[in-house]
Amino acid sequence: MVIPAMILILIFSYLPMYGVLMAFQDYDIFQGFLHSPWVGFKHFRMFFEAPEFWNVMRNTFVISALRLLIGFPAPILLALILNEVMHLRFKRIIQTVSYLPHFLSWVIVSGFVASMLATDNGSLNMLLQKLQLVSEPINFLSIPGYFWAILIGTGIWKEIGFSAIVYLAAIAGINPEIYEAASIDGASRFKKMWYITMPGISGVITIFMILAVGDILSAGFEDILLLAKNPVLQDVSDVIDTYVYRVGIRNSLFSYAAAVGLFKSAISVILLTAANMMARKLGRSLW
């Protein structure tokens, strides 16, 4: 049963690694990997010396850090709250409503967000004007100061319900007799949540935290590309993935794009290893 998955990983994850050679070549599509001239670390130096380098790295780290600090605890909190809901039907309705956005593509979600924030009959602007909080509509998607909040908020809304399912499954695996014993001892709901539920799912939280830290340079691509259509937002929206697409792929600079991608992968491996080493000291790790 594992063989088909292993074949897929081999074909789509390991065999394409041969393309990493492009990062050290002036790759020519007609000459191929074997005959394109080698240039060493030329493209890496070009990236480090590019005027956009520090801005791209800042945006990547800031957006990833915000997602880690705000987006990571959100599904845990939702799972803890849903676990305390006693009305089964209401609990199922909340679960269904919260995880449905996960199945919507970013094209649909970005269109929904753009419509909601529009200056012309946008629901948010209409609400703010009705409450007399603003006198004129605000063009949220053209103001750099609002972009990070919109991006992080949209991402949380889209994924919080689906991510919470994993934590709810982990909570379901906790022995109910422990809760019964705690209730007999007079423990409140909060204390049972803090001293039983949280330690019970700490292993799952640790694993997802390690993976999140290793993926910190993947600040997003589709969501940013679709939400930051206004060129005014480029200074706060341009991350490594969008930079590779905008400068490398669209300009057919394949070697340059491969070099930037390899740099991102190398840093991600270092971060993943460091996070795993820290988790190992706490008694839990991936390897």
From TrEMBL:
Keywords: Cell membrane, Membrane, Transmembrane, Transmembrane helix, Transport. This is ABC transporter permease subunit. It comes from Paenibacillus dendrobii. PROSITE patterns: ABC_TM1 (PS50928). It is a multi-pass membrane protein. Belongs to the binding-protein-dependent transport system permease family. The chain crosses the membrane at residues 7-24, 61-82, 103-126, 146-172, 193-213, 253-275. It is found in: Cell membrane. One of its GO terms (biological process) is transmembrane transport. Its main location: membrane. The keyword Ribosomal protein does not apply. One of its GO terms (cellular component) is plasma membrane. The keyword Transport applies. Residues 57-275 form the ABC transmembrane type-1 domain.
